[in-house]
Design brief:
Elements (H helix, E strand, L loop, with lengths): L1 H19 L3 E3 L3 H25 L1 H6 L4 H19 L4 E3 L2 H21 L5
Antiparallel strand pairs: 1-2
């Protein structure tokens, strides 16, 4: 159930980023949006830890701000993979991807704060 909720949050975050950021576009169905959310979840689970470790000196040097660039690269990778799978997510450039990643990060962070696991 937790995985389904996380995928739903990613789908909502991507949809919201497309609505708010001018250079991001999504031309597809809700099923394609769920596919993009799944791709983003896999990219964040597999590739992001490796990128974070490799860029750790830059993250330390910039006091953590470089994590925003890592998030943008993860979204760019998701956009590229969604293009290969013809899911319909496109971007005009790195600026739009960066802002989209920022929106997605804030939405995911807020959802984790609201839906945190009560133990």
């Amino acid at each position: 159930m937790r995985t389904v909720i996380k995928l739903l949050v990613y789908a909502i975050a991507v949809w919201l980023a497309v609505q708010l950021v001018d250079g991001l576009r999504f031309d597809g169905t809700w099923i394609a949006l769920a596919g993009i959310a799944a791709v983003l979840a896999v990219v964040n689970a597999v590739v992001k830890p490796v990128m974070t470790v490799l860029s750790f000196p830059l993250i330390i040097l910039t006091l953590g701000i470089f994590v925003l660039v890592v998030n943008a690269v993860m979204l760019a990778l998701t956009i590229w993979l969604s293009g290969l799978m013809e899911l319909g997510l496109t971007s005009d450039g790195f600026g739009a991807t960066f802002l989209g990643a920022l929106v997605i990060s804030v939405v995911v962070w807020l959802s984790e704060a609201v839906l945190k696991d009560e133990r």
